[in-house]
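Journal club side-thread
Mid-discussion, someone asked how the predicted structure for our own chain would compare to the paper's figures. Pasting it here so we can look after the session.
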Amino acid sequence: MNNMGNIPQVKIGLLAVSRDCFPLELSRRRRQAVAVESQKLNLPVVELQTIIENENDVLKALQEIEEQKVNALAIFLGNFGPEGPTTILAQKFSGPVMFAAAAEETAADLYQGRGDAYCGLLNASYNIGLRQLKVHLPEYPVGTASEVARMIEEFVPISRVWLGLKNLKVFSFGPRPQDFYACNAPIKPLFDLGVEVMENSELDLYDIFLKAAGSPEIKAVAADMAKELGAGNTYPELLEKLAQYEVALLKFMEKNLGASQYGVFANKCWPSFEPYFGFVPCFVNARLASRGIPVACEVDIYGALSEYLLTCATELPATLLDINNTVPADMYEKNRQKIGGYKPTDLFMGFHCGNTASCCLLGPALKYQLIMHRLMEPEKEPEITRGTLEGRIRPGEVTIFRLQGTAETELKSYIAQGEVLDVDPQSFGSIGVFGIREMGRFYRHVLIEKRFPHHTAVGFKHAGKTLFALLRMLGLKEIYYNQPEGLPYPTENPF
């Protein structure tokens, strides 16, 4: 279970199918064994009692699914299974669906106890294609009861991300900045995915902020901010302004979710923001991310979506960082022991102004944005550029990920797993030294070659397997990853 209120709770229905010329009891017994193994893993699985043999059983199953409030479905071929009714059920069910099949248990029972589900899944796959269904098939979708339970375990986060995506609304405020055309992408592919988008102006954002003044929640939110910051509360006089902004965003989301269940933001945050609001919004963005509501910087709508998918996959706050700068040679040499086997080109620094949740930082503190200060308040004490949450990103596992709409209104994506190293980046902002195997080649032949923007969503756990399976379910044709040494990219010079 998770503590975030903005991501789905998954309830998987385990449903068996049986071809009428095979023993129905074989499917029932094998389903029951999978249910027992799922219980051992504490999976959110409901064992559905209907077994599909014909189309009338499909109607019974849909009724049971509704009664049990199931929102994801694991269809289990305990024997060969009837491919027509099986795929009709998958077609009529509104949530994510996986298929798995039973392996034969023992050589001592291959007359009455042989189910031939290995064969049946081939027929089911043909019918899945006929009906143009997008389902999850595990890498090897045939197994014993314990192996199928492990497949369902992997399906849980895939389902959570799928359900979040299909019930999401992205709220944006302001146009994309001129100098950040890389974040400017057509929104039609979002509607193709089932994501709702509500675009608003910067005036709308300022209006809801002004209207939130005097809200009774502000003092409590400011007190919570102070508690979170602890010794890092360097600007206590700023907290009520920041709290007013947080209250305004949450009230707006509550009022405007409409038919959607979950919401994220992609907001204009500079340069016109600071003179009117009197602060930078980074700390608020970080706090909302910790509650499962990412707020992407610079109106990066696909960045907000990518952060949210990572949040659903990991059940942890995600962040949005620039793939920002190289690691200097002297820093590399000084930290060779901590860096281990990474090459210099495997390393980069991930940075943003201060939008990463405090739980993901070492020594988080409220500070001012150095780059904006140079631009907006040169040679003055920081005032309107205060509000970043700065600190070194905690060492540990990370996944960098982006789902992007192209100028041609097509979807493409990349996923790479690595780690934040225990190396002091000796710089400002929310920042860390990242190690990803073969990052140099990935940077050249995926990020640059495929024209991905500089923002990457960062999840604080390895989630590549979940995200890759999700993207396959969504029908993406372009899914890139950091290919290992010895496996060249199509565009890589072989000489």
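Post-session note: The longest strand covers residues 396-405.
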